[in-house]
Specification:
With 114 residues, this protein is an alpha+beta fold. Helices cover 29% and strands 39% of the residues. It is built from two helices and five strands; from the N terminus they run αβββββα. Strands 4-3-2-1-5 form a five-stranded antiparallel beta sheet. β3 (54-64) and β4 form a beta hairpin. The mean pLDDT is 83.
Length: 114
């Protein structure tokens, strides 16, 4: 079992390096971040560490629907410069890749009812 324990740190290191290289592409770009509990923000990625703690500037929070915490409303609030705790981060993606696609099922329903 001595070899297995010796191999683990390199695996973890490789993952962290990959993550850093991936996130590095988004420095000074607009990213969207989802957190555990359904909260979502959008801001300019200014920095990060291997624990996925993020520094965002010009941050906007998308407010959650009080009746359904996993549903976001159109309301936002400005948070400015924030540090996001890595353990709460679920997803980081480029903000421009989040455009809404039209719901294909909606069209079918409309055709079916008309």
């Amino acid at each position: 079992g001595s070899m297995a324990s010796g191999a683990q740190p390199t695996d973890k290191k490789r993952r962290e390096t990959l993550l850093s290289a991936e996130l590095g592409k988004y420095i000074n770009k607009n990213v969207r971040v989802k957190f555990q509990g359904g909260r979502e923000v959008c801001g300019i990625l200014k920095g990060y560490d291997q624990l996925l703690n993020l520094v965002l500037d010009g941050t906007l929070e998308y407010l959650q629907d009080p009746k359904d915490p996993f549903k976001l409303t159109d309301e936002t609030r400005s948070l400015g410069l924030v540090v996001c705790r890595g353990t709460a981060v679920v997803l980081v993606c480029p903000a421009d890749a989040m455009e809404a696609i039209s719901n294909p099922f909606l069209q079918q329903e409309q055709e079916a009812t008309s």
